[in-house]
Amino acid sequence: MDRMCCNCPYRKQYFSCYLIATVIGIFTFMLLLIWLFAFKNGLGFKTADLIFNWHPLLMTLGMIFMFSHAILFYRTGTICNKNCLKMAHGISQFAVILFAILGLIAVFSNHIMNGIPNMYSLHSWLGLTVILIFMLNFAFGFYFFFYPKADAACRKAALPYHVRVGIVCFILAIITAVTGIGEKAIFSISNYKDMPLEGALCNLLGFMFIIYGLTILYLVMEPCYKRAEAPAAPCLQQPQPRKFAPTYFNPYYSYPRQCPTRYTQNVFWNY
Fold this sequence. Notes:
This protein is an all-alpha fold. Helices cover 65% and strands 0% of the residues. The chain has eight helices and no strands. Helix 6 (122-145) packs antiparallel against helix 7 (152-188). The longest helix has 37 residues, at 152-188. The chain is globular, with a radius of gyration of 26 Å.
């Protein structure tokens, strides 16, 4: 069984923070839906503006929410088999790529239909950079962790770089989302400087993206929440008493200090 034990003193704290992050994520997604349906006429394929609305929705679902949960699989599923978690992590990352491609198609289609040039803003540069880094890291991880002929030593050496690049990519995704919301608000809200309701909603949405990103980064970077190796097998076995130990309790005899997890449960002295 390739399972790992959880660091029990910190599990409640981890899942409490995870629940808070999930609530923040749901609230952020609800703000996004309110913005799209209450102020941007929802989703569709009939007009360029309706097609564009797919872009923030798909990018948020993929590059923010699915990505964030994918990088937390190994810390959340402490009682799950590691191979199952690796498969779920890989499938989720592949789904992120599909969502990102569909989001790019939506925004490029909108620009072509409206005669707007592509790749001229900081948001577009950041977005394309994040997607390229994500795809390269996905290919990197697929080769080292899914390809059966990959060397075990190379896998061990590649893991820290794969994790760090993923964290950097998530940070850039949050920054890209915030710049995209600000750019859309400036271009589409004529009286943005007067702080209309839509403008305030956009500001709150960008702020919540930052808060959500910080909570995810805390969960993924806190050392106490890291998946720990299971304890060695001898520690789980009932130790055998010494042959020369007295058969009755002797207060002057120094009893052996064995593994306290199981050994002290069936005796009448404690350490």
